[in-house]
Specification:
The complex is a heterodimer. Chain A is of the alpha/beta class. Chain A has one domain: Rossmann fold, CATH 3.40.50. Chain A contains 4 helices and 8 strands; from the N terminus they run βαβαββαβββαβ. In chain A, the strands form 2 sheets. In chain A, strands 3-2-4-5-6 form a 5-stranded parallel sheet. A 3-stranded antiparallel sheet of chain A has the order 1-8-7. In chain A, helix 1 packs across helix 2. The longest helix of chain A is centred in the N-terminal third of the chain and has 19 residues. The relative contact order of chain A is 0.21. Chain B folds into 2 domains: 139 residues, Aspartate/ornithine carbamoyltransferase (Rossmann fold, 3-Layer(aba) Sandwich); 151 residues, Aspartate/ornithine carbamoyltransferase (Rossmann fold). Chain B contains 11 helices and 9 strands. Chain B starts with 16 loop residues before the first helix and ends in a 5-residue tail after the last helix. The chains are: A alpha/beta, B alpha/beta.
């Protein structure tokens, strides 16, 4: 198993700030916008983006939630490993809100498909956008594209993109891992 | 998340502690789901479940049916009163006929102890025991423990007394197994005639003085007096039972500490507990009912995930 660095800490940091600025361009003061991190690994990115918006760009009223899509996935009973559920935490109404889904890697698009269905349980949003740190090009199974992307990469199917976060993995970095 | 160690839920005695933790963690997620504006997930779209009730039930049947529907399973309901069982069909034939319509899971309540175990050996479907005679009622025990965990944080180390008709109660037996598996201390309390003679061999304390039992415990699970299962008189009169083993507000207030009151339902108000106790803050009877749906969703979801495609 070999691995290659796609992004180091400095590059991750620059990209996060750029993504935050792009969000401000579109959503101004976030008065009608909510950020939703997708469980399990999108929540670290969502926490970071929310923190940058609050602390570095002084945006108040950032509403942040976490959405777990386990029970909405299309591969129940189809994989070898049982699906693992995580916590959903959405303490606000999404009716008529502009939602930004936040996930670390966009690959087949199936998780986003599940998230689009799952969020409907909480109401009818006005609009849903997608922000991902890594966009794996040419690997989509569904017609889903990000509105905000950190870095687009070409990765073949037996390779894996791993995003590490300081809070969990002791460094900010993105690796390409050959399986 | 790991998997359950079993393919059927026949009784608590076939589970291990990890299974119970897994069911509870999964139930936590489903409890969040059933508090959403839209309380439904699509996980079990391709699963069909038959609810076979060979004995009367209101809340268990409704609770299972709701849990199945909230998981998007297709549901068949069957009760023996309107069926060919009356015409002399055997249990295996009845179930195999239903299974030939491509049913994946069977939830069954039956008056005979061991009916679920018997069925699991003879038919090709995942079986959930919804009560078999005076043997086990595993989902009730799971939701009871889940409700204790929700209120007190943990089941381990807690003292639980089960009061009433222990002899005829499947709820009591399943609760004893479940509570002990999680490290709780269990006591049974009731008239001597309604306490099985060898119950102490299960490692439970036996007490016939209700006040002593309540002073000992953190949680009291009040069972219903099951008149329909009593072939002979086990106590002189309902009034005498109530005087000795009924809980009222004065008794609760006179205890050294505040204990939690549970009841698996249906309540005989004024017999095992009075109305002011049933409706008090100390009673978590309606929490038990709500948790029942989440716990049953977890059980069905986890068992369904083991059914091969």
């Amino acid at each position: 198993m070999s691995q290659k660095v796609l992004l180091n800490e400095k590059e991750v940091n620059i990209i996060l700030h750029r993504l935050a600025c792009q969000l401000i361009e579109k959503h101004n003061d976030f008065s009608n916008t909510v950020l939703i991190g997708l469980q399990p690994r999108g929540v670290y990115l969502a926490d970071r983006i929310a923190k940058i918006l609050r602390e570095d760009y002084k945006v108040e009223n950032i509403q942040l939630g976490y959405l777990d899509i386990t029970f909405f996935r299309d591969d129940f009973r189809r994989g070898e490993k049982p699906l693992e559920a995580n916590k959903t935490k959405i303490n606000f109404l999404v009716e008529d809100k502009n939602i930004v889904f936040i996930d670390d890697v966009l690959y087949t698009g199936r998780s986003i498909r599940a998230a689009l269905t799952a969020i409907q349980s909480f109401g009818r949003p006005n609009e849903i956008e997608l922000l991902t740190l890594i966009d794996r090009r040419f690997s989509r199974h569904l017609p889903i594209q990000p509105n905000y992307r950190g870095r687009q990469v070409d990765v073949i199917n037996n390779e894996k993109v791993r995003v590490n976060w300081k809070e969990k993995d002791s460094e900010d970095s993105v690796y390409l891992i050959e399986r | 998340m790991s998997e359950l160690s079993v393919n059927h839920l026949l009784g608590i005695k076939y589970l291990n502690e990890k299974d119970i933790q897994l069911i509870f963690e999964t139930a936590d997620h489903f409890k969040e789901v059933i508090n959403r504006p839209i309380k439904k997930v699509p996980s079990l779209r391709d699963i069909t479940i038959a609810n076979l009730f060979f004995e009367n039930s209101t809340r268990t049947k409704l609770s299972f049916e709701l849990a199945e529907k909230r998981l998007s399973a297709d549901v068949l309901n069957f009760s023996s009163a309107q069926s060919s069982v009356k015409k002399g069909e055997t249990l295996i034939d009845t179930v195999n006929n239903i299974l030939s319509m491509k049913v994946d899971m069977v939830v069954m309540r039956h008056p005979n102890p061991g009916a679920g175990v018997f069925l699991s050996k003879h038919v090709n479907a995942s079986i959930v025991n919804a009560g078999d005679g005076a043997h086990e009622h595993p989902t009730q025990a799971l939701l009871d423990s889940y409700s204790i965990r929700e209120r007190l944080g943990d089941v381990a180390g807690k003292k639980v007394v089960i009061v009433g008709d222990i002899l005829h109660s499947r709820v009591a037996l399943s609760n004893i197994f479940a509570l002990q598996l999680q490290g709780a201390e269990v006591m049974v309390c009731g008239p001597k005639t309604l306490i099985p003679r060898y119950i102490h061999e299960l490692g439970v304390k036996v007490e016939t003085d209700l006040r002593k039992a309540l002073n000992w415990c953190d949680v009291a699970n009040m069972l219903r007096v099951q008149n329909e299962r009593m072939d002979i008189s086990y106590f002189p009169s309902t009034r005498e039972y109530t005087q000795q083993f009924g809980v009222n507000k004065e008794l609760l207030n006179s205890l050294d500490k505040e204990i939690i009151i549970m009841h698996p339902g249906p309540i005989n108000r004024g017999v095992e507990i009075t109305s002011d106790v049933a409706d008090s803050k100390q009673a978590i009877i309606l929490d038990q009912v709500q948790n029942g749906v989440a716990v049953r969703m977890a059980v069905i979801y986890l068992l369904a995930s083991k059914i091969k495609q």
